[in-house]
Amino acid sequence: MKNTLTCLIIDDDDLDRMAVEAEAKEHQKLNVLGSFSNPIEALDFIKIQRPDILFLDIDMPELNGLDFIKSITALDTINIIISSHPEYALQGFQLKVFDFILKPLESVRFESTIKRVFDFTQLKDKAEAYDVLFENEKIIFKEGHQMVTLNSNEILYLEAYGDYTKIVTDKKEHLTLATLSNFLESLPVGKFMRIHRSYVVATNKIDSFGTKQIVIGLNTLPIGKTYLKEAKQAFK
User: Which pTM value belongs to this model?
Assistant: First the structure.
């Protein structure tokens, strides 16, 4: 299990890049490998050095941050977008970015994200020790008298039905005797978000996000007042 994580910073704005670098260097568990103003120049570096974490902006010349992430999907970096354009948050989460932080960067927000990163990597290390990978994790549950196996990335959302949970996929709906809270604990960390006492959604399946509802395909789901702040933070 790693005690420190390496990181790389990419932002064409000098002041913003220096702000991220300063925050990262203040953190004892982060090792800054370098920072770049040009994403094209960073490509070769990242393929050789393979940092654990990538902090990057979206609006950059030659190659924007979203396209940059698409070009390095095979490297398995933890990608964190730091941008002044909240309208790109949904696209970012669809690319499975770990977090989307809105500029100007705040120390408390940065620290919160880094804590979540280390929590995630520790859980992932434990899972890999048992030959379990989040990307291929199978969810096994009982439906009636049968055992059902699903890949976690097939799930669109979960809905509470008293002591039961409805699992909704593109192809079918399932019902299992488990509370929503208990079922949520069996899912990969960081891929699902509770938006209501009765609903949990897969973040990479969200098509649109509003102040009162989330749309996934043909399904419109309500956002509870209790969870609205957390949902907004996830898309901040």
Answer: 0.58
